[in-house]
Specification:
This protein is of the alpha/beta class. It has a domain of 218 residues. Helices cover 53% and strands 8% of the residues. The chain has 24 helices and ten strands. The strands form four sheets. The chain has a four-stranded parallel beta sheet, with helices on both faces. The protein has a two-stranded antiparallel sheet with strand order 1-2. Strands 3-6 form a two-stranded antiparallel ribbon. Strand 9, helix 17 and strand 10 form a beta-alpha-beta unit. Helix 5 packs across helix 6, helix 5 crosses helix 11 and helix 19 packs across helix 20. The longest helix has 29 residues. The radius of gyration is 34 Å and the shape is elongated.
């Protein structure tokens, strides 16, 4: 990249690099004169640099900052004299790093698209041959990570890319590459302020990561170097475990390793062997760990529009559906037909989402619930899921009385009369009339439907549950009351269960959740 581009790149990474390009260039010229830092190449008196040189510049800036911090009265000239007095070691390191830099530049086209990927999709860049105004035209192409890996493996098999020859041409040994990999990783360990977040950052788009600043951004650059060298060593066919080389994310984890994956045993047990190859599985655990998983913790199915009324009551009783992650859905005409729901329920339970059904006692609801009691879970991957659905997750309103509905099971005759009159003041209905219909054991319809049919009332049945809940909320707000309706008890039970639905941070947690039996 050009001097200007390198200046902008460094400005985001180093606080004391100088706020003007002229000062930055003077600093680079000073380092160059002292043989501590030099451009990758010079063309027509223009210097060009590589992003990999951030490492070298970081070492020099660390020395400069430490020198100034030891003596705050040091002037710029004094600092330079101090650097000259201690430059032999830094010069030798620059010479050694120059060899590594040549290797990194030589192999970057085969590894950078994978290293800069979000763990799923990478980006191939073709700078082409056309130059306009001194700038290469760059075309970008998004490619699935597995295709990028296949491209590199094919190039190696066909002899188009020969890792061993790349190494020999620069006069570097495998041991030297291993040494540099460990050295950069060691610096990274002490530097990275986002070390605990790195597994999350691994799955973030490269352009988004570039919005970091200071040491956090330098750490991403160093991680890139470590990743490239790690992949390169693997392509050399080296047994990295024997050389003490560990994957880029656990360099300094000295706990016992698994024989096959070479991962720390605790990490394999927690995340599985696919920790770096199955990003969507991994993200499930990571988003749970950081409590940023947008997946619902529970889905509640109701008759028609009753969910609108029930969601109001959840919020009133302190269990905000929006904050707890509770979603509501209206049931279709088939209601609880087992064959219709089996696959969906099992899938959602596998994803640690509770399923609840709040339904009227009609259309063979009891028989449908009994079917779920006897049917076993069919997912072999999770043997701890014994049933498709715990029957307690299916609530039939007024289970002791047939043909009972949401309104009949949860509200008094007085509340029902008030709700009907709120909808239409012309409706003439009394508490006694509602009581008579409720006591009629021969009726085959729900309470509201029977009242409307018997007395010819004009109401919007789908809106009535909301009006009834509004009345209940108003009463509880004014007078409170120890007595809880069946509906209020169910809201409390579901709210508590969902609140403590600790979505798993790893495979062990997942199994523990399944063993509780709450998922089936």
């Amino acid at each position: 990249m050009s001097e200007e581009a390198f200046f902008k790149l460094c400005l985001r990474r180093f606080h004391n690099i100088g706020r003007s390009k002229d000062n930055f260039v003077k600093l680079l010229d000073f380092y160059n004169d002292e043989q501590l830092f030099s451009p990758v190449f010079i063309h027509e008196k223009q210097s060009y640099y590589s992003t990999f040189q951030v490492f070298n510049l970081f070492i020099l800036e660390e020395f400069r900052e430490k020198s100034l911090s030891l003596n705050s009265e040091l002037q710029c000239g004094d600092w330079k004299q101090m650097l000259k007095a201690n430059k032999e070691h830094l010069r030798e390191e620059n010479i050694e790093f120059s060899k590594l830099l040549k290797l990194l530049i030589a192999i970057q086209d085969y590894y950078l698209p994978e290293v800069m990927s979000d763990g799923r999709v990478g980006e191939l860049r073709d700078y082409g041959t056309l130059i306009l105004g001194g700038t290469f035209m760059c075309s970008k192409k998004r490619v699935v990570l597995s295709a990028l890996q296949r491209y590199r493996n094919t190039a190696i098999t066909a002899g188009k890319f020969k890792p061993k020859e790349s190494l020999d041409s620069i006069n570097l040994s495998v041991e030297e590459v291993v040494k540099w990999t460990k050295k950069v990783a060691l610096i990274l360990k002490g530097l990275n302020p986002l070390a605990h977040w790195h597994l999350v950052l691994k799955y973030v788009d490269f352009e988004k990561k570039q919005k970091l600043r200071g040491d956090a951004l330098v750490a991403q650059d160093l991680h890139g170097i470590v990743d490239i060298l790690f992949l390169f060593l693997k392509d050399l066919g080296e047994d990295l475990s024997k050389k003490g080389v560990r994957d880029a994310y656990d360099w300094f984890d000295l706990s016992k390793r698994a024989k096959t994956s070479h991962l720390p045993i605790w990490k394999e047990r927690m995340y599985g062997e696919e920790i770096f190859t199955a990003p969507y599985k991994m993200l499930e655990f990571l988003t749970n760990e950081f409590n940023i998983n947008p997946k619902p913790r529970a889905i509640i199915f109701t008759e028609g529009q009753e969910w609108k009324a029930i969601s109001k009551l959840f919020a009133f009783m302190g269990y905000s559906p929006k904050l707890l992650g509770i979603e509501f859905r209206a049931l279709g005409s088939d209601k609880l037909k087992y064959e219709k729901w089996i696959q969906f329920i099992e899938y959602m339970h596998e994803k640690q989402t509770y399923m609840f059904f709040l339904i009227d006692d009609e259309n063979n609801a009891r028989q449908a619930r009994n079917k779920f009691k006897t049917k076993k879970n069919r997912i072999n991957e999770h043997p701890h899921l014994k049933r498709t659905l715990d029957p307690l997750r299916i609530k039939i309103w007024g289970a002791k009385k047939k043909n009972s509905s949401f309104e009949e099971a949860n509200f008094t005759n007085t509340e029902i009369v008030e709700a009907i009159k709120r909808q239409n003041k012309s409706n003439k209905i009394t508490v006694k009339q509602v009581r008579d219909v409720r006591k009629n054991t021969s009726r085959k319809k729900g309470l509201i439907e029977a009242i409307v049919g018997r007395y010819g009332l004009k109401i919007r049945k789908e809106k009535l549950p909301e009006v009834l809940v509004d009345i209940l909320i108003k009463k509880r707000t004014k007078r409170g009351g120890k007595r809880k309706t069946e509906l209020e008890k169910i809201v409390c039970e579901i709210g508590q269960l969902v609140m403590f639905n600790h979505q798993p941070k790893g495979r062990d947690h997942q199994v523990q959740n399944f063993r509780t039996g709450f998922m089936g």
